[in-house]
Specification:
alpha+beta; 24% strand; single chain
Length: 263
C-alpha cells in the first residue's frame, strides 16, 4: 500500500476520483478534436505543407475543425480508431460515475479490482486509436509522412493515466465506510482531540493552583526579638483549601492555627 496507508482513507477516495476525471477528460478531448494526426506533404523538395486530421474532424486553416469527410466509405483503419477512441472515452466516463458513488457507499474489494480490470481495457482501447496511422492515404511513408499531432499526444497521455489509475486502484487500502462518513468522523475525532487537550490543560492549571505552597516570614519587634511566621497552604482530596499558620516567638514558644476554606 506504500504511502496510501499514511493518508486519510477519504482522501484516497478523492484521489481515485480525481485521476479518473483527468483520464476521462483526456480521452474525450483526444477523440473529439481535429489534430490527432499531423500530416506533412512534400509536393516538391523545397516545399512542404502540413495538414491535421482528427478521428472525426479535420483541421481547415482559417476555419478550424470541420467534419471529416472521405470520398468513399470511411477507411477501416480510421473507422477502427474511431471505435476504439469512443469505447475508451465511454469506459473512462462509466468508471468515473461508479467512483463517484464512493461518496455515499463503501466499495467492496472485488468492485475496486473489477474497476482495475476495466481501466486496463481502457488503456488497450486508447492505444488502439493509433491504428489511424495505418491509413495509407494519410501516411505513405514517402512523400507523405505522419506524426503525432497535439490530440495524438493527448491520447497518449490518456493511455498513461488509464494505466496509472490501474496502479492506484490496486494499491489503495480497502474502503471501510463512505467518503462522506469518513470526513465527518475525521472532523469529529479532531474536535474530540481538541476538547481532550482543553480538559487536560484545565486539569493541569487546577493541579498547579492546588499544589502545596509554603511561605516563611521573619519579623523583629521593637526590642529586637525575632518572630518567625510560617504559612503553609495545601488542598485536601475534596479540593478544600487548608491554611496552616505556625508562629514561633523569640522565647521558643510555637502557636499553630489552621483555617479551612470550603469550595
Amino acid at each position: 500500500m506504500l504511502c496510501f496507508d499514511k493518508i486519510p482513507k477519504w482522501l484516497n477516495g478523492f484521489i481515485t476520483i480525481l485521476l479518473s476525471l483527468v483520464s476521462f477528460i483526456l480521452s474525450t478531448v483526444a477523440v473529439s478534436e481535429c489534430k490527432f494526426v499531423r500530416r506533412k506533404v512534400a509536393t516538391v523538395p523545397e516545399y512542404i505543407y502540413v495538414e491535421y486530421y482528427g478521428l472525426f474532424n479535420s483541421y481547415v486553416k482559417d476555419k478550424g475543425c470541420e467534419e471529416l469527410v472521405f470520398s468513399g466509405s470511411t477507411p477501416s483503419a480510421v473507422r477502427s480508431a474511431q471505435a476504439f477512441g469512443v469505447m475508451a472515452s465511454l469506459c473512462a466516463g462509466a468508471i468515473l460515475i461508479v467512483l463517484l458513488f464512493q461518496i455515499c457507499v463503501a466499495f467492496p474489494k472485488f468492485l475496486r479490482l473489477s474497476l482495475c480490470l476495466v481501466y486496463g481495457i481502457c488503456f488497450i482501447f486508447q492505444m488502439l486509436t493509433f491504428t489511424a496511422f495505418a491509413y495509407d492515404d494519410w501516411c505513405d511513408g514517402e512523400k507523405i509522412t505522419c506524426e503525432l499531432g497535439p490530440d495524438g499526444y493527448t491520447s497518449l497521455m490518456a493511455a498513461v493515466f488509464h494505466l496509472f489509475c490501474v496502479v492506484v486502484l490496486c494499491m489503495v487500502p480497502d474502503q471501510e465506510e463512505p467518503i462522506f462518513k469518513s470526513i465527518i468522523k475525521e472532523f469529529q475525532d479532531v474536535s474530540e482531540s481538541k476538547e481532550i487537550d482543553e480538559i487536560a490543560g484545565k486539569t493541569a492549571d487546577i493541579s498547579a493552583k492546588k499544589s502545596k505552597r509554603k511561605t516563611v516570614t521573619e519579623r523583629l519587634d521593637s526590642d529586637g526579638n525575632k518572630t518567625t511566621i510560617k504559612v503553609t497552604i495545601d488542598f485536601d482530596d475534596g479540593g478544600n483549601k487548608i491554611t496552616r499558620t505556625e508562629t514561633t516567638t523569640a522565647d521558643g514558644s510555637v502557636i499553630v492555627s489552621t483555617d479551612t476554606e470550603m469550595v
